[in-house]
């Protein structure tokens, strides 16, 4: 599965339209390039739908919301739906403010998403209308542990069934699920949480992987999560050898993604299915 997904990304060079947040937009563009895709960021209502028309997938990230871009998100999402292109939602900070909450729920009503990726607090808010958010980070009370893993898998599958989307719940342990199957992924390193935007970058990579594999979105999302986590591990190993900190780590994360091949991904992936 991993080999096929990655090979398709490299062969097709999917064009990914990302309406994302300006804190992480450059890193999102660079990670899409590194993973084998091609990024474009067009958030004005005058062109958002047109740009989506020429892309393989659309990524919507609500990290830095404003009224102007919300309209563009809806217009682009509807155009992608009309064309049958995968749309990926990153509900950054859902549960933290009325604007984020209302926007995220409105997007779920207006746009059909192929993948919804968030931390456990964000996903709980969307699925249940609650959760203990801490800004854009998951609450300690919500984090996935061995004790609540089965419950999180059930939540993800139920949310997938109600939305028709693949649900990616990411953290120290990642769950990627549709209504009937779940992948449990244990790649990654805590250093990833000390660099702004690794979650946004992952969502952009999911957009590239889904765009190149529109008929296998569950596997594409799982492969993207594995790849991001593995590159995070490899970057930490190299940063440690160099005695480097978070700035170098961020660069190394992108570097390792640009060099990732199928053999490395297959050998390093820590993935099982439920």
Could you characterize the architecture of this molecule?
With 274 residues, the chain is an alpha/beta fold. The chain has a single domain (2-273), classed as UDP-N-acetylmuramoyl-L-alanine:D-glutamate ligase, CATH 3.40.1190.20. 53% of the residues lie in helices and 13% in strands. It has eleven helices and nine strands. A hairpin with a 4-residue loop joins strand 7 and strand 8. The mean pLDDT is 94.
Keywords:
274 residues; alpha/beta; UDP-N-acetylmuramoyl-L-alanine:D-glutamate ligase; 9-stranded mixed beta sheet; 11 helices; 9 strands; 53% helix; globular
Q: Which helices and strands, and how do they pair?
A:
Elements: H1 2-12, E1 15-19, H2 25-35, E2 38-40, H3 48-53, E3 57-61, H4 67-83, E4 87-90, H5 98-110, E5 115-118, H6 120-128, H7 149-163, E6 166-169, E7 174-177, E8 182-185, H8 198-212, H9 217-242, H10 246-259, H11 262-268, E9 271-273
Helix pairs in contact: 1-8, 1-11, 2-8, 2-10, 6-7, 8-9, 9-10
Summarize the entry for a quick read.
The protein is an alpha/beta fold.
Going by CATH, the architecture would be: 3-Layer(aba) Sandwich
N-C termini distance: 16 Å
**Under the CATH scheme, which class?**
Alpha Beta
Mean pLDDT: 94
Number of helices: 11
Radius of gyration: 17 Å
Strand order of the largest sheet: 2-1-3-4-5-6-7-8-9
Helix content: 40-55%
The largest pleated sheet is described as:
9 strands, mixed
What is the structural class?
Answer: alpha/beta
Spell the H/E element sequence.
Answer: HEHEHEHEHEHHEEEHHHHE
By DSSP, the count of extended strands is 9
